[in-house]
């Protein structure tokens, strides 16, 4: 199969995640990056906003850092000082308020992480910027971060991934992996990593899917947790009136499920996935039902890839990936394309 032969090349182009998983590569990455934030190399960046305690970002960031055996940098972004001074010194009062908000946010994060991951090396930073996503990407580039972790918006549904302005901007522009926590995410437990990894494929690009599977398998093996492969056969609404029969949508869904099972079998035969890897097809009337048809591990992680858009090695979610993210009940790690 042609897509099997290109997996190594595709995986190398996504080496930002893959290289982090090997001890020799970790040492090389630390050497290239140098020392930062109090003498420790920073690899996992978490964006924590004031008043977003239920976003789940701290719980997910500590789990990611624990799983990768890396340090954690927590950053909060506050509004910048006004460009035009105020005669009434309102600008100075605003700057003082913003600084106080940032300091209180970091103190809140520090208190939470002392409970969540007391042994995890954590550093903190406050930065003034008009755009939280731009600030996080700037910090990520400066520190050579391996992944940026964000939470769901505060007004979203508890227990589900809800993209806010910052997370939505990141998943459409970042050149590094982006991890998103469901609102209210409690994590796998203090000092614990993930207990399972699920890799979602959309079947739109066999070569890209094979590369994503290879990385998910490597990560699962590195963490010593089981890997599961999922795809989805979403049943559309019944056409009315129908000239092709009222059961045609069911027939299409059944055909999609059979196609997915055939693809899984081909991947097993080609060695893309091991014989012990569980494969599941989510089937339902709409994406919510299709996602709900699958049993999810609360301490698990969902991995999926993005599609190329503009600059290579950039995260950009296609329509199917976007729906998977928006309906996921567990944290999602989105890998950049290319």
Automatic annotation (TrEMBL):
Q: Domain of life here?
A: Bacteria
Q: Where is the UspA domain?
A: 57-181, 197-336
Record-linked Gene3D superfamilies: 3.40.50.12370
Q: Which InterPro entries match?
A: Universal_stress_UspA (IPR006015), USP_A (IPR051688), UspA (IPR006016)
Family under the similarity heading: Belongs to the universal stress protein A family.
This one is known as Universal stress protein
């Amino acid at each position: 199969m042609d897509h099997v032969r290109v997996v190594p090349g595709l995986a190398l182009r996504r080496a930002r995640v893959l290289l982090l998983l090997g001890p020799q590569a970790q040492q090389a990455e630390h050497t290239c990056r140098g020392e930062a934030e109090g003498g420790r190399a920073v690899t996992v960046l978490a964006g924590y906003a004031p008043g977003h305690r239920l976003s789940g970002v701290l719980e997910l960031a500590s789990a990611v850092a624990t799983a990768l055996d890396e340090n954690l940098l927590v950053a909060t972004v506050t509004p910048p000082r006004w460009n035009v001074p105020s005669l009434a010194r309102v600008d100075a009062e605003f700057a003082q308020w913003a600084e106080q908000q940032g300091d209180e946010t970091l103190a809140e994060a520090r208190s939470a992480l002392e409970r969540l991951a007391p042994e995890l090396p954590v550093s903190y930073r406050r930065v003034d910027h008009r755009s939280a996503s731009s600030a996080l990407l700037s910090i990520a580039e400066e520190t050579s971060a391996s992944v940026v972790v964000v939470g769901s918006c505060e007004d979203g549904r508890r227990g589900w991934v809800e993209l806010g302005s910052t997370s939505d901007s990141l998943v459409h522009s970042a050149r590094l992996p982006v991890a998103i926590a469901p609102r209210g995410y409690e994590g796998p437990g203090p000092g614990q990593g993930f207990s399972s990894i699920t890799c979602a494929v959309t079947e739109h690009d066999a070569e890209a899917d094979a590369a994503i599977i290879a990385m998910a398998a490597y990560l699962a093996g590195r963490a010593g947790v089981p890997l599961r492969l999922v795809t989805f056969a979403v049943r559309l609404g019944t056409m009315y009136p129908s000239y092709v029969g009222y059961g045609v949508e069911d027939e299409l869904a059944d055909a999609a499920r059979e196609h997915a099972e055939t693809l899984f079998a081909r991947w097993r035969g080609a060695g893309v996935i091991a014989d012990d890897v569980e494969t599941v097809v989510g089937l339902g009337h709409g994406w919510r039902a299709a996602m709900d048809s699958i049993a999810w591990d609360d301490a698990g992680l969902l991995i999926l890839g993005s599609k190329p858009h503009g600059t290579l090695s950039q995260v950009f979610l296609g329509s199917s990936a976007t729906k998977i993210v928006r309906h996921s009940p567990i944290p999602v790690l989105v890998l950049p394309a290319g």
